[in-house]
């Protein structure tokens, strides 16, 4: 799936200027004269359509996507780095001037919902458009309206549903809306998606002009994710929010678990998988280009790296139409000992707790594998020739970095680790990361370096390359970020199957499709042969934990963990773990490989839902503030 092309970007740029300000939650249009002009012709109405698209949040953006740094996957240098995404991850959220505020202000998604409502109210006025195209446009906007509501409810919980615009004559009492109960929110989102699905095309025909437009597989996959979210513990019988009762006496959270929600989710996931398969969406497999030589291990690694970084690849169900990235900020200052690039920072890093999530080479958690020396994992070991595709032979690094699964080596850069690509495309001649003080990937300036000694390799396109020491020397490949890819959908399906039916072959099958694409043994083989508790995968609770770890590994750094750990109700435990790294200011191995606390997070129950800005609650006293704020 390709992103919106340059023509559509230009239309968005011009069209967004047509959107005016409005009253609370942008439900009363105040630019009526402009609206009449916008829907006088097909060409101007099309511009308004792309205005509706323009409100899509910047997914996987380090600065503006709370899920990018707020899920415990990445940390950075403090106080050198004060971007909103990092401040958010440090627990600096507040209700006076909320960080990454999607509720109100210039970034409010209610403004996007308002534009969607205006479009739906007026598209019938356009005469030089055929009915089939009109129905398709309406379906796209209904999807966008549903997605904006879904984005908000995952962050804030119960939200006001803005089903239609109020007339220009609406009084102040009309716009002082209440928050709707959480089940009503999910039901409305699904209703909009169902209405959209009927009239969306199954695939884009003219990619030169329409790449990035919403299709039926996109809408059905997002519907599946919505229903899995609705069925999950945070939103399904959550007693922690039983006191969220508004001034009408209406409870905003349900407190009674509904097992049938998992049936709806399971069926929606399978329907989405089927239509994806029908339209050629499949798990990505790397095909080397001319001059590229890869071992089986490197090929497995590239299956994972390029499922994200390969532009418009076959696994992408939905790539962000407004957001292309090159993730230069994640890139180490150098792979090459002869070149130090000045255009990258390399200061966004996974901590050791996240690094330890990845499996052993046997496909098991490192603490579960009876063949893996868990207790000695922080000791130092020299690599042998057998490790050459992962670690520089004879190089000394932590035992933690040895004998791990391919997704570990695909996703994580580390001191002594091999790095395929970046100008070297033969597996016999790869770069080696050397991250100790004084080495080429280590600290060069005190504002740009990895604070943990690890780097998020997965998000860096393997064809990015440094060509000289000047800032302009970083040749990069931009790619649209995947909002949802097929592996995500497979694991949602496996999760819903397990939750509704318990462990069975259907669930195992879809977990194993994801694992085996990366050369990881099947769940059954891994646990029955190498696990300390070999029967864990046969029990519902055990398989639940396996699936949760599987999602965190497969979707690492893709802004999914943030939402997953919240809906599973495990975020309080995970996000209060100290962020640990190596002692990166050291030269000798024995000094470098000592654990160092980067910072101690303080994640509270109130952080599970975002605050509504104080001023908004004052303006509209019908709004109930989220607990703790």
TrEMBL record:
InterPro entries xrefs: SusD-like_N (IPR033985), SusD_RagB_dom (IPR012944), TPR-like_helical_dom_sf (IPR011990)
Keywords: Cell outer membrane, Membrane, Signal
Keyword Transferase among UniProt keywords: no
Compartments where found: Cell outer membrane
Stored Pfam families: SusD-like_3, SusD_RagB
Entry protein name: RagB/SusD family nutrient uptake outer membrane protein
Similarity-based family: Belongs to the SusD family.
Organism: Sphingobacterium faecale
RagB/SusD domain residues: 315-629
Every SusD-like N-terminal domain range: 93-226
Signal peptide bounds: 1-19
